[in-house]
Write a structure and sequence with these properties.
The protein is mostly beta strands. It folds into two domains: 369 residues, Cupredoxins -  blue copper proteins (Immunoglobulin-like); 138 residues, Immunoglobulin-like (Sandwich), CATH 2.60.40.420. Helix content is 8%, strand content 35%. The chain is built from eight helices and 35 strands. A seven-stranded mixed β-sheet has the order 14-13-12-16-22-19-20.
C-alpha cells in the first residue's frame, strides 16, 4: 500500500469493537502528497478559500433567540467577500428559501423557473430552481422528507424557455415517473409524478434530466435532496441521539464556474465542466461551528464532473471518520476510514467525532490530491487546454478545500468543554452481503471513446442511436453487468435508473482502489452498500448484480449513463427496457 493512501480497516471485528467504544483513540495519519500524478491539465491557481462561522443550535438559542436549528444562513453583507474569513455561515435546511425542509405529507407543486438569490457577496446570482410554497412560505430546491411506504405526489410546472424534466435519482419507479429525457416537459406544460416510495432509508436526490441540456441545467441549479426514512433508520437515529438539523446534517456539494458579476456560466459542448467556486448547501466556502461531539453528515456530490477525494483534516493530519451508508442507505456495519472518493451523483453517510480535537480547533473538509487518470487519448488529436473554459478553477485531482468546521470555542474569549459520548452499534442494519451470482447471466458493457472523441457504452451513443432500447431484460430476472473501462479512458461514474444494485467484484483496479479492499473480490467499504452509481476507473472491470423484480407491468424503459454530465450530454447513455 502506498504509505499516504487512506485505507479502511481490514478487521471488521476490531472495527465493531472500536465502534462500541465511546471515543476512538486511533492516531491520525498524515495525508499523502502524491508526486507521480499524470495530469493532462496544469494548475491555474487555487480559488480563494473563504471561511465563515455560524453558531450551533445551543449557542443560537442562548445568544440569538433562534427557536430551532432549521434556520437558513443569512446572506453575506456587501463588506464580506469570497476571500474574507467569516463571510458565509453554512446554510442549514430551514423553513423557507433555498434548501427549505419540506415533508412530503401532502401534494406539492413545484415550478421549474429562474430567480435571483444572494448566494455570493455583492450582486445577486440568477439560479435555475424548483420553486413552490409550503405552509405559506416560499421554498426553492427544497429538501424533501418522506418515509418508505409514503406516496410521493408532486406536480412540476415548466416556466422555463426550454424543455426540462424532474428525475427521481435512485428511486424505484416506473418509466412514466422516472423523469428521464424520454419524457421531456415542454415550456408551459406540467407533469404529475405520483408513486409509492419503496426504497430503503437514505439520502436520494432529484434533478433535471433533459437530453443534451442536463449539464447546463444542473450547473445553473436545478437539483435538490430527498431524505427517506424507515424503521432501521429510526432505530439508529434514536440510538445515536443526533437530532436532524443539529448534529445530523446534509452537505450538498457543488462547484460552479462564477464570473466577476456573480453569474453562473456554462459553455455548451465543453468537456468535464468544473467550477472556480465550491458551494455546500448553496454556501460558498462555508464554516460550521460544531460541538466537540459526534456528528452525522450526509454528503452528496452534485457537481457536473468533479470527482472528490474527501478527508477531514486537523492541522494537516487526518481525522478518521466512520462510513455508515452509501447511495441506497445504511451499511450492515460501520467502517473506519481516512478518506473516500465521492463521484458525481454519489452519496455517503458518515460519522465524524469532533471530540477528538481540542476546543477551538478547526477541521477542514478537503478533497485531497489524487491521480485523475483523465487520459482521453484515443482520438489522437492534440486538443486545446480545457482549463481555459474554467478560469480560476482547481484542476481535477488537485487539493481543494470544501468547507471547515470550528469546534466550540473558536473566536470566543472562553472555550467551553463538552463531553457527549455516543455508542455506535456494531450492527447498523440488516443489509445482506452481496449476492452469490454463480449462474447469473452476464451482460458486458464497455466504456470507450472513438477516434473522433465520441463517448460510447459498447457501440451505443444516444445521439446516434436515439430512444430505441439497446437491449431488453425480462422482469423478475437477475443479471450481472460487467462494466469494463478502457485503459485510455477516464473515471466514469455510471448511473442506473429505476433500480439499486450491489457491487460484486472489482478487478484490474488502480492501486489507489486496491489499497481500500476490505472484502473478497476487490471490494472496498463503499462497495458493500446498495448503490445506484458506481465509479469505474480506467482499465478497471466492475461487476454489479441487479434484481429486475418490480411491480410495473408492460414495457418500462430506463437509462444507463455516465453521470459526468458533459459525457451524458455528449451521448454516453443508452436506453434499455424491462418487459413482462
Amino acid at each position: 500500500m502506498h504509505p499516504g493512501w487512506a485505507r479502511a480497516s481490514r478487521q471488521p471485528d476490531a472495527v465493531a469493537h472500536l465502534l462500541a467504544a465511546e471515543h476512538s483513540t486511533d492516531s491520525a495519519l498524515l495525508p499523502d502528497a502524491m508526486t507521480d500524478r499524470n495530469r493532462r491539465l496544469l494548475l491555474l491557481g487555487l480559488p480563494a478559500a473563504a471561511a465563515a462561522i455560524v453558531a450551533p443550535w445551543w449557542w443560537r438559542r442562548q445568544h440569538a433567540g433562534a427557536p430551532h436549528a432549521h434556520r437558513a444562513a443569512q446572506p453575506a453583507t456587501e463588506a464580506a467577500t469570497a476571500s474574507s474569513p467569516g463571510a458565509q455561515p453554512l446554510r442549514i435546511p430551514g423553513r423557507d428559501g433555498l434548501l427549505a425542509d419540506v415533508p412530503l405529507s401532502k401534494p406539492l407543486t413545484l415550478r421549474a423557473q429562474t430567480g435571483e438569490f444572494p448566494v455570493f457577496a455583492g450582486a445577486r446570482t440568477r439560479v435555475w430552481h424548483y420553486a413552490g410554497e409550503h405552509d405559506g412560505r416560499t421554498i426553492a430546491n427544497p429538501l424533501l422528507h418522506a418515509a418508505r411506504g409514503d406516496t410521493l405526489d408532486v406536480t412540476v410546472a415548466n416556466l422555463l424557455d426550454e424543455d426540462t424534466t424532474l428525475h427521481w435519482h435512485g428511486l424505484h419507479v416506473d418509466e412514466a415517473n422516472d423523469g428521464s429525457g424520454l419524457h421531456p416537459l415542454a415550456p408551459g406544460a406540467q407533469r404529475h409524478y405520483r408513486f409509492r416510495i419503496d426504497n430503503r432509508a437514505g439520502l436520494y436526490w432529484y434533478h433535471a434530466h433533459p437530453h443534451g441540456r442536463t449539464g447546463f441545467q444542473l450547473q445553473h441549479g436545478l437539483a435538490g435532496l430527498l431524505l427517506v426514512e424507515d424503521d432501521e433508520e429510526r432505530a439508529l437515529r434514536e440510538r445515536l441521539g443526533l437530532e436532524w438539523g443539529e448534529r445530523d446534517l446534509p452537505l450538498l456539494i457543488a462547484d460552479k464556474q462564477v464570473d466577476a458579476h456573480n453569474a453562473i456560466v456554462y459553455r455548451d459542448g465543453a468537456d468535464d465542466w468544473i467550477g472556480n467556486r465550491v458551494l455546500v448547501n448553496w454556501t460558498p466556502e462555508p464554516t460550521l461551528e460544531v460541538l466537540p461531539a459526534l456528528y452525522r453528515l450526509r454528503l452528496a456530490n452534485v457537481c457536473n464532473a468533479r470527482l472528490l477525494r474527501l478527508a477531514f483534516l486537523h492541522e494537516g493530519e487526518v481525522l478518521p471518520f466512520r462510513l455508515i451508508g452509501t447511495d441506497g442507505g445504511l451499511l450492515a456495519q460501520a467502517w473506519q476510514m481516512e478518506d473516500v472518493f465521492l463521484a458525481p451523483a454519489q452519496r455517503l453517510d458518515v460519522l465524524v467525532d469532533f471530540a477528538r480535537v481540542p476546543a477551538g480547533a478547526r477541521v477542514v473538509l478537503r478533497s485531497l490530491d489524487y491521480v485523475p487518470m483523465e487520459n482521453e487519448d484515443e482520438s489522437g488529436a492534440l486538443l486545446p487546454d480545457p482549463m481555459s473554459d474554467h478560469p480560476g478553477a482547481v484542476p481535477m485531482g488537485a487539493p481543494l478545500d470544501v468547507m471547515q468546521f470550528c469546534v466550540a470555542g473558536c473566536n470566543r474569549d472562553t472555550a467551553a468543554s463538552f463531553s457527549m459520548p455516543v455508542r455506535v452499534p456494531a450492527t447498523l442494519s440488516r443489509l445482506p452481503p452481496p449476492p452469490d451470482t454463480a449462474g447469473w447471466p452476464v451482460r458486458s458493457l464497455r466504456l470507450r471513446m472513438d477516434e473522433e472523441g465520441t463517448w460510447f457504452i459498447n457501440d451505443w451513443n444516444f445521439h446516434r442511436d436515439g430512444h430505441a432500447p439497446a437491449f431488453t431484460v425480462k422482469r423478475g430476472t437477475r443479471e450481472v453487468w460487467e462494466i469494463r473501462n478502457n485503459m485510455t479512458s477516464m473515471p466514469h461514474p455510471i448511473h442506473l435508473h429505476g433500480f439499486q444494485f450491489r457491487t460484486v467484484s472489482r478487478s484490474i483496479s488502480p492501486h489507489d482502489v486496491r489499497s481500500r479492499q476490505v472484502a473478497a473480490n476487490g471490494l472496498g467499504p463503499q462497495d458493500l452498500g446498495s448503490n445506484d452509481t458506481v465509479l469505474v476507473w480506467p482499465g478497471e472491470i466492475v461487476r454489479i448484480a441487479i434484481d429486475f423484480s418490480q411491480p410495473y407491468h408492460g414495457t418500462q424503459r430506463y437509462m444507463l449513463h455516465c453521470h459526468n454530465l458533459e459525457h451524458e450530454d455528449m451521448g454516453m447513455m443508452l436506453t434499455f427496457a424491462v418487459t413482462d
